[in-house]
Amino acid sequence: MDFDFSVVAFGLPILLRGLVNTVLFCVVALPAGLALGSAVALLRLSRRRIARLPAAAFVEIIRDTPFLVQAFLLFYGLPPFGIRLSAATAGILVLSVHSGAYFAEAIRGAILSVPKGQLEAARALGMPYLRGMRRIVFPQMLGYLLPALTNQIIGAIKDSAVLSVITAPELSMAAQMVLGESFSPVETYAMVSVLYWALIGAVSAGLMRLEKRLFRAAVVIPRTDTTRLPLSAIETTAS
Amino acid sequence: MPNSITVMLHAAPWLLRGAVVTLETSLLAIALGLPVGIGLAIAMRSRLRVVRAFVRVYISFARGTPLIIQIMLVFFVLPSLGLDLPRFAAGVLALSLNSGAYIAEMIRGGLTAIPKGQIEAARALSMRPALMWRHIILPQVLALILPPLTVEFTALLKGSALLAVIGIVELTRTGQQMVATTYKPLEIWLTVGIFYFVMCYALAALTRYLERTTQVYRTV
Amino acid sequence: MIKVQNLHKHFGALHVLKGIDLEVAAGEKICIIGPSGSGKSTLLRCLNYLEEPDEGTILLEGAPVGGVETPTGRRRVSENAINQVRASIGMVFQNFNLWTHMTVLNNIIEAPIYVRGLDRKTAVARALRLLDRIGLSDKKDAYPSQLSGGQQQRVAIARALAMEPKVMLFDEPTSSLDPELVGDVLDVMRTLASDGMTMLVVTHEMGFAAEVADRVCFMDLGAILEQSSPAAFFHGPSNERAAQFLAKVIGRNPAM
């Protein structure tokens, strides 16, 4: 098997542009998915069944059907009803919703990892539920969340490749274009896989470094939390 | 509305045939993925640095690139290496190679869960490594990884949908064919979704059942 | 000050509280004792609505805590009302529940600032005063993980006191502590008692109960079987199960 490097010279610029698009897709879809996931996670933890059940059903349905089928449903299923989305929009939309369901599980797991007593103490002091979640549970939950989140983010990047099937203009789609011009699948797919591998490797390493820095701040000797009081106030407490 | 239901009911038998192919590919993939995973897991503990490095790179690649790209690679690249497989075999091979990497990681996790004392006892009884693996370690690990294996099987069921892009006529591909003949994408894709959901939900229930029942055998 | 009427609570099929009636006057110190599973903690947790009773009324100074029985069934009080009542009930938990991501000082000032709307300066001043009273001023910038169990529990007491509650609930406050740390926490509770705070304490510390309580309540299997003064109770309870329980406990503590 000989490797035709001219294909690399020809194809790489196109693929790199596709890579940029993949990154852009994720940059838009992932925060949206996080927002959706947080809302769904809170609903799943609600006391009321009317909130819990639809949220649980949503997560179960998304997780038990293939991403490709969800993409087809959104992209091809809506036009007969007049809703015609561009491939990119549909792609970002289905990626957000899909990752949202998985984020919801990661967030719910992280919230449940925080000991129950922490929130109980807050409620016992009269703190409303949402404030307690925000000030007490949320900061502690982040430590548990980051590893699970990293996994889901990487999953989302891999899912984005499937969007090429609905002609969304990302990296795998760019690969199809290069293939169409060069008829060299070996070289093309070799380049594409290396690019994905590198992207995911970089994201994974970056998130792991972030994890280490956050954990270091929470666990090891913390900086003293000075309360910025004028000296006079401290003196009056000397009684 | 009634028209839609008719469409869905008419498509169902065809889609069912596609679902059978989906199950076939997934079952074959996990059946082949297990030996791949076991082989990788054993190779991970090799004394040769080259072997360990190869395993690390393999697993990193399998987990760090999209499945759809891996399927393309196996389908398009293998012929140039001289291996001309029919598309069904190529698809199943791609799924197995991918699965194998995840199974290897599962086994690695399972191995650390086995108390070290058991291995020490086996060594004290002068057991050969191969015997130790076959009779002591692997049986316990396989029992331990049963729940995650069903999760992997669920992932394979969903992943098999991607085999449609290389023309294997499983559930998703059948769905595409149905859409082409009925021009009713919403109804067809909803039905396809329902088929997948039923399969995966049943498996998820199985996973939960297995997690509960293997608890008893896990702790000593 | 507190009036409990006909309180019932089920956990699934288990009938944990079987028609509890209890009255606590202002400034009274009540110790609730009994075997595990008697419903002591559940009763306490119903008082600030951390557990939702199935039947019965709880009144704090005449205002309902949580739910009211109406002719048409049980009606839940508004979320706001619940939070307001909770703000005037202080609770100390068996495993302290100090917020691990915040310093001692921040633990104490959090609720006064965010629940009572106090400004930061006043809240901090109050916190420092409380820390001084419990003897932990030097730990104001420490994190809970850096403190011993006894220190954490004392901070937890200070955190509850910072809200200037009308009544303090203690749910087995020393049960999670190593024996040598129990004394410090009991000292703080004794000081609190002598300052006139209304207290309900679920505890296994019989010595503390004998010394500090105005009334001892013995609970078993979801009902209050005996209520009497500590002198009467510890010399010879009239209820048979109470007597059995006491015999077992004293058998292990010859110091009593």
Topology (SSEs and partners):
The complex is a heterotrimer of chains A (239), B (220) and C (256).
Chain A: H1 5-44, H2 49-63, H3 67-77, H4 87-113, H5 116-124, H6 129-162, H7 171-182, H8 185-219, H9 231-236
Helix pairs in contact in A: 1-2, 1-4, 1-6, 1-7, 1-8, 2-4, 3-4, 4-6, 5-6, 6-8, 7-8
Chain B: H1 2-44, H2 49-64, H3 67-80, H4 87-113, H5 116-124, H6 129-144, H7 146-159, H8 171-182, H9 185-218
Helix pairs in contact in B: 1-2, 1-4, 1-7, 1-8, 1-9, 2-4, 3-4, 4-6, 4-7, 5-6, 7-9, 8-9
Chain C: E1 2-11, E2 14-24, E3 29-33, H1 40-47, E4 55-60, E5 63-64, E6 67-70, E7 73-76, H2 79-87, E8 89-92, H3 104-114, H4 120-133, H5 149-161, E9 167-171, H6 179-194, E10 198-202, H7 206-212, E11 215-220, E12 223-228, H8 230-235, H9 240-252
Parallel strand pairs in C: 3-10, 3-11, 8-9, 9-10
Antiparallel strand pairs in C: 1-2, 1-4, 4-5, 6-7, 11-12
Helix pairs in contact in C: 3-4, 3-5, 5-6
Give a short synopsis of this structure.
Chain A is an all-alpha fold and 239 residues long. Chain A has helices at residues 5-44, 49-63, 67-77, 87-113, 116-124, 129-162, 171-182, 185-219, 231-236.
Q: What would you note in describing this structure?
A:
The complex is a heterotrimer of chains A (239), B (220) and C (256). Chain A contains 9 helices and no strands. In chain A, 79% of the residues lie in helices and 0% in strands. Chain A has one domain: MetI-like fold (Orthogonal Bundle). With 220 residues, chain B is mainly alpha-helical. Chain B contains 9 helices and no strands. In chain B, helix 1 runs antiparallel to helix 8. Chain C is 38% helix and 27% strand. In chain C, the strands form 3 sheets. A 6-stranded mixed β-sheet of chain C has the order 8-9-10-3-11-12, sandwiched between helices. In chain C, strands 2-1-4-5 form a 4-stranded antiparallel β-sheet, covered by helices on one side. Chain C has a two-stranded antiparallel sheet with strand order 6-7. Chain C is globular. Chains in contact: A-B, A-C. Chains A and B meet through helix 2, helix 3, helix 6 and helix 8 of A and helix 2, helix 3, helix 7, helix 8 and helix 9 of B.
